[in-house]
Amino acid sequence: MIKDLFKGIRAGDRFALSRAITMVESKRPDQRAEAQELLIRCEEVVKNPLVVSVTGPPGVGKSTFIEAIGLALVEQGHRVAVLSVDPASQMSGGSILGDKTRMAMLGRSAQAYIRPSSNNNQYGGITTVSRETGMLCAAAGYDHVIFETVGIGQSESDVRFIADMVILLLQPGSGDELQGYKRGVLEQAHLLVVNKADGEQQQLAEHTRLSFETNRMMVDQIWQQRILVASALSGYGIPEVMNALSEFGQLDLVELRLAREQDWFRWRTEDLIRSKVAEMLAPEIKSLLQDMEKGTLSPTQALFRFDELLHERLD
Amino acid sequence: MIKDLFKGIRAGDRFALSRAITMVESKRPDQRAEAQELLIRCEEVVKNPLVVSVTGPPGVGKSTFIEAIGLALVEQGHRVAVLSVDPASQMSGGSILGDKTRMAMLGRSAQAYIRPSSNNNQYGGITTVSRETGMLCAAAGYDHVIFETVGIGQSESDVRFIADMVILLLQPGSGDELQGYKRGVLEQAHLLVVNKADGEQQQLAEHTRLSFETNRMMVDQIWQQRILVASALSGYGIPEVMNALSEFGQLDLVELRLAREQDWFRWRTEDLIRSKVAEMLAPEIKSLLQDMEKGTLSPTQALFRFDELLHERLD
After folding, report:
1. Which of A27, A109, A255, B43 has its C-alpha lying 20 to 30 A from B167's C-alpha?
2. Which residue has the higher pLDDT, B111 or A93?
3. With pLDDT > 70 as the criterion, what percentage of chain A qualifies?
4. Is B38 on the interface with A (CB under 8 A)?
């Protein structure tokens, strides 16, 4: 069964790949052993794909940008998997803007695979199994895996566990808004792209690029941050983005990836710990919640009591 | 010692309050017992303050807005504590925009207390001890506690553990960017304020308000979301914001607060669990990381091995 699924993935069968991703994303315990077997098989055979995260604030044009670089990669002979955020799953009903057809051209390419993220992907793009879904895509022959991530919150910090290269898209005129970005977001971006540089916005975009240019930093000790101006819609600046991608892909990433895997491992162990112990202490948590409801313990007292219990049980 | 600190806080001594907040934010184990004692003393004497979170994307004018409503609250006879994000701590060196004087007028009021968040506040405004720092402010006699939070990430979801009322600031023209917001951010906002409605932006702001108006939702089952237009800079629309604040403050919040405290308790237990068990399994984690480095275990294999270990140790 897993053997057949593995064969299907390796043969480039998209349905097999989609089924495998669903299995790996599943929280059902009976799927866990099978998912493990599949992942270990895949890990044995795959080479590392170049994993790129495209991130930025809402409305900056991430999906248009991803389509543009995806199509350019396909033209260069690459195979591209896009793990995207499904806007419909982000709003209740998804009806505010209606259904946009996202990445329609890229979706028609035989060399591309687009997968919208699942509904339980709360944090805008990176989940605890993102590394695994990327590996499945690699096993299916995709040499570039692109994650679309949203916003500047948790998923921005989780991105560094998953992606080789981080591209941050910015709005023209957003230089002054820098003060609101937290340290990590800018410092981890290998490439800043001021997008939407078309029509009247072009001059403003160039101005924004210059305001960032004076604050460029080293990212990962092997890469000096670059700042480009582009319009994913018109194609302006996309060749320069492709050059940066290609140069980054030619770096020796072995040490970087080892460090990233170690960070990923620590991050995942924390997650496993949390769910395991929460399950183990569920009765105690329930009883303390009842005490809070009855008013016999204040929230502060209940938490201190839990802290004591945790130490009694685990020390 | 704690008795004196408690007395100082109750007497309205700002230095005592600041020292207490530093103590509660400290991760030093020797401060833990003292912090617990202080918090339990405070919890016994305080009434619930109205806790407001002011949130929104970078550059939307959060600190100007907070200053405007803070000054208006003081004029109404309230005492206001603001737990704000220090922009200097968010960027390396903090020098990109230079030092802005934030909330200077509010800072001069004897009825207001402004505390920039600590440097280790990575997630833009809400930390695991935010409830506690709010309680200390309440014990010092502040009847309104305002948290400034940044961005649309983790702190946006954590806000619901802390705040009674959530105010989301929006840029004029940002209606189309809605698709990028994740479900929770909009749905949990009691009040949307399209800020910066001055000069040429006023008409656009009004248009943005209308685009949100058709999608208003119930928040917390007792409050229909409101959408207002304001300019914190000119004061336009601030009286309407104050009306909304005052009406919200007159609601019966008992049930809401109980539900929120229960969510807060679950959230905090998860955090305690994570740090405790990570400490307990530190040797195993270290040894698996070494196996990964030597290449005897792949990342996937190491994680599965850890999962087994976790079950062996805790079952």
Report:
1. B43
2. B111
3. 86
4. no
B77 and B29, same structural domain?
no
Q: Contacts of residue B177 in chain A, CB cutoff 8 Å?
A: 57-59
Token pair belonging to B268: 């905090």
Tell me if B277 and A280 make a contact (CB, 8 A cut-off): no
Residues A107 and A212 in one domain: yes
B26: CATH: 1.20.5.170
In this structure, are residues A171 and A196 in contact, taking their beta carbons and an 8 Å threshold?
yes
- Which chain A residue has its CA at the smallest distance from B177's CA? A59
What's residue B101's pLDDT?
Answer: 58
pLDDT for A155 equals 56
Half-sphere exposure of A215 (CA within 13 A, CB side): 18
| Smallest CA–CA distance from A272 into chain B, residue | B307
Q: Let me know if residue A259 belongs to a domain.
A: no
B 280-309: CB under 8 A from A: 280-281, 285, 288-289, 292-293, 298-304, 306-307
Give me the pLDDT at residue B228, please: 96
Domain hosting residue A284, numbered range: 264-314
Alpha-carbon span B173 to B175, nearest angstrom: 6
Q: Give yes or no: residues B173 and B291 share one domain.
A: no
Contacts of A261 in chain B (CB under 8 A): 292, 299
**Which member of A36, A90, A217 has the closest CB to residue B182?**
A90
Domain assignment of residue A38, yes or no: yes
Instruction: Say which residue, B258 or A176, is predicted with more confidence.
Output: B258
pLDDT at A188: 84
Q: Are residues B171 and B216 in the same domain?
A: yes
State the pLDDT at residue A295.
Answer: 87
ipTM above 0.90, yes or no: no
Q: Do B299 and A153 touch (CB under 8 A)?
A: no
Report the greatest alpha carbon distance in chain B.
68
Does A314 reach chain B within 8 Å, measured CB to CB? yes
- Name the stretches of chain B with pLDDT < 70: 85-101, 117-125, 150-157, 175-185
Residues B195 and B78 in one domain: yes
In-domain check, residue B257: no
C-alpha B81/C-alpha B160 separation (Å) is 19
Instruction: Please answer yes or no on whether A156 and B153 come within 8 Å at the CB atom.
Output: yes
- The reply to whether A269 and A238 lie within a common domain is no
Search chain A and give the residue with CA nearest B213. A96
**CA angle, B229 then B235 then B240, to 5°:** 50
Q: Which residues contact B59 (CB under 8 A, 6 or more apart)?
A: A174, A176, A177, A179, A180, B171
A133 and A205 in a single domain? The answer is yes
Overall number of domains in chain A: 3
Concatenated DSSP letters of A187-230: HT-SEEEE----TTHHHHHHHHHHHHHTT--EETTTEE-EEEE-
Cβ of residue A215 closer than 8 Å to a chain B Cβ: yes
B201: domain CATH number?
Answer: 3.40.50.300
Residue type, A183: R
pTM: 0.68
Interface check for B206 against chain A (CB to CB < 8 A): the answer is no
The reported pLDDT for the residue numbered B121 is 46
For residues B242 and B278, membership in a common domain is answered with: no
Provide mean pLDDT across the span A202-224.
85
Specify the residue for token string 């004087």.
B101
Give A180's contacts in chain B (Cβ within 8 Å): 57-59, 87, 90, 150-151
